[in-house]
Amino acid sequence: MDTKITGTVVRATGSWYEVLHEGSMLRCRIRGKLRLKGVRSTNPVVVGDRVECEADEKGDYAICAILPRRNYVIRRASNLSKESHIIAANIDRALLLVTLRQPATPPEFVDRFLVTCEAYKIPVTILLSKTDLQDPEAVAAFGAIYRGAGYEVATLSVHDGTGLDRVRKLLAEGTTLLSGNSGVGKSTLIRTIDPSLDIRTGEISESHGKGRHTTTFSTMYPLAGGGAVIDTPGIKGFGLIDIDDAELAHYFPEMMRASADCRFYNCTHTHEPGCAVVEAIRRGEIAPERYESYLKMLDEDEKYRK
Ligand SMILES: Nc1nc2c(ncn2[C@@H]2O[C@H](COP(=O)(O)OP(=O)(O)O)[C@@H](O)[C@H]2O)c(=O)[nH]1
Ligand SMILES: [Mg+2]
Ligand SMILES: [Zn+2]
Questions:
Q1: Mean pLDDT for each 10-residue chunk of the chain (306 residues)?
Q2: How far apart are the CA of 266 and the centre of ligand 3, in A?
Q3: Closest of 68, 65, 41 to residue 241, by C-alpha
């Protein structure tokens, strides 16, 4: 009997893993030390990973190998830490849910997420969520900034059905990472797309030596209509990893395009003469809000990036 199988990790808590293999769910532990070359992270096996599992004599499966990742999204475990946390692997696209009020998504969260996706070459669509509750003028202004940068911005309301067709279409193929601050409507959206799913809140209290604390885990949901979606609860922010100052502007698509005309090839678009990015902002072709985000990232991350 062949005791080795290959499956997809749909849930990872750190102590055990759910692996989907040909329609059935296996609860696995990790065998031995699994470390990926060149990736220093707090979590070796993540949602979306393709893994090899081996059964023991009792028929319990353990993960014994991770197949090479196509890509992954990572964030710093905490602002001051050099350790990183991988959110998910093998992603085809990201959907970023944003609400401008109830709750207000901080612009830096949006821009950091977009930079992360650009860095890992993951296409991203921005979904302005809960449009039934939003101020139409604010929605239009936000849309203008991000469409101007080159992103698809769609509107969504599960209350009145706005945008659901577009989302269904996006989700139907491959694996979609669903991101957004807590409360923007991620779980509600998944439940609406596929009412047969049992959406867990993603929060599990685990007992540790120092007492109880609440941890949140990403979960992948295979959808009845095809495709799979990864819900990422409790992600409050992204730290930029391995992006140096000279590189950061590459991940602002509108700045990248304009920078071809900067006088200096290594222009940081801050103080240099003949900067085409600064010129494009002056002409109203690049949103000042995006440029301010860029400057803030250069400034704030200096201490941590390296
Ligand atoms: N008015 C309105 N409320 C929504 C919409 N989508 C979600 N909500 C509400 O927003 C709250 C947070 O939603 P939830 O899906 O838990 O957000 P998550 O933290 O991103 O998973 C819930 O009370 C939902 O009922 C929407 O399109 N319109
Ligand atoms: Mg949720
Ligand atoms: Zn420049």
A1: 87 90 92 64 88 91 93 73 82 96 93 91 96 97 97 97 96 95 92 84 42 63 93 69 82 97 95 98 97 91 50
A2: 8
A3: 41
- Would you tell me how many other CB atoms lie within 10 Å of the CB of residue 246? 11
Q: Which amino acid is at 258?
A: A
| Measured distance CA(169)–CA(226) in Å, rounded | 10
Best mutation site among 188, 201, 236 for ligand 1 pocket (most ligand atoms within 8 Å of CB): 188
Within 22-170, strands assigned E span 24-30, 50-55, 61-66, 72-76, 84-89, 93-98, 124-128, 152-155
Q: What phi and psi values does residue 204 have, to the nearest 5 degrees?
A: -130, 130
Q: Which residues pair with 154 in a beta bridge?
A: 127
Give the chain's domains with CATH numbers: 4-66 (2.40.50.140), 86-231 (3.40.50.300), 245-301 (1.10.40.50)
Model pTM score: 0.88
CB atoms within 10 A of CB 247: 12
- Per DSSP, 47 falls in state T
Tell me the two tokens of residue 276.
């085409």
